[in-house]
Specification:
Elements (H helix, E strand, L loop, with lengths): L2 E7 L2 E9 L3 E5 L9 H7 L4 E5 L18 H15 L4 E6 L1 H12 L4 E7 L10 H18 L1 H12 L14 H19 L5 H6 L3 E7 L6 H13 L4 E3 L5 H4 L1 H16 L1
Parallel strand pairs: 3-4, 3-5, 5-6, 6-7, 7-8
Antiparallel strand pairs: 1-2, 2-4
């Protein structure tokens, strides 16, 4: 059974959803919201209590100031508050893309509250050898958004990230909510997320088991490079998950099976 809730936070509310029974698992993204994780959450709810949510300022998670910031630190604080309201000491966390960066900060500053973090394709550009060039490209994307609007910015973003337009499925016209969330992504989310510097010493010394995930079909994507770089810094190898960057949405059953295997191995 799925239940929906609102968590008050300073300056707004966080929409979150709970389904299933068993050990607590949080699925988190940024800027994608709870809807994208629905298929995976349904699969995992067979043996977990699964929590999904809309990140601050996205869709149903409203801020009093619509232009309020979205940083990995603020989003991690939101997850810690979510654990508090659930009465949970800790949880397993699977974060994808910007949500993986949120998870890295949560594991760094709240290490006792994350049992295992699966950081799936975090865009930590600061770990790349060409980080200055990549961060300059992010600045250019943000400038494109402010100058030319969402459609121009998203096409430039997809190209910079490594998606081949010829291989993409046709995209449906964005809804008003998609446009609003996309505006937040470019104006408030993209730069602080991609410029995040993981604290490798804290991540390796803390209580959290950190597993870096990468899409089996993500070889041409920028996030494949960042994931590999993070795993190398942590002294591990990235674990392949089904699909590409959004494999959790396109292959929910297979992704859930791989995630179960990772958690079982981490607990051994």
């Amino acid at each position: 059974m799925l239940t929906t809730h609102q968590l008050p936070i300073p300056g707004g509310t966080i929409h979150y959803e709970v389904r299933g029974n068993g050990p607590l698992m949080i699925l988190t993204g940024s800027p994608v919201d709870a809807r994208v994780f629905a298929g995976l959450a349904d699969e995992l709810a067979r043996e977990h209590t699964v929590v999904t949510h809309d990140p601050r300022g996205i869709n149903r998670s409203r801020l009093d100031d619509p232009d309020g910031p979205s940083t990995p630190q603020l989003r991690a604080d939101d997850l810690a508050a979510l654990l508090d309201t659930l009465g949970a000491d800790d949880a397993d966390v699977m974060g994808s893309s910007g949500g993986a960066v949120t998870g890295l900060d949560l594991a760094t500053r709240y290490p006792d509250r994350v049992r295992t973090l699966v950081a799936h394709e975090p865009p930590v550009l600061t770990l790349l050898q060409d980080s200055a060039e990549q961060l300059a490209a992010v600045d250019a994307l943000v400038a494109t958004f402010h100058r030319e609007g969402f459609e121009a910015a998203i096409m430039a973003f997809l190209g910079n990230a490594g998606w081949d337009e010829d291989e993409e499925e046709p995209r449906e016209p964005p809804s008003a909510q998609d446009m609003a969330d996309g505006a937040r992504f470019f104006a408030q989310d993209l730069h602080p997320t991609s410029s995040y510097v993981p604290d490798i010493a804290a991540l390796t010394a803390g209580a959290t088991r950190v597993v870096v995930g990468v899409g089996a079909d993500s070889g041409d994507l920028l996030t494949h490079r960042t994931s590999t770089a993070l795993a190398e810094r942590l002294g591990t190898r990235p674990i392949a998950f089904p699909g590409a960057h959004h494999g959790f949405a396109s292959h929910p059953q297979e992704f859930a099976a791989a995630l179960r295997d990772v958690l079982t191995t981490a607990r051994a």
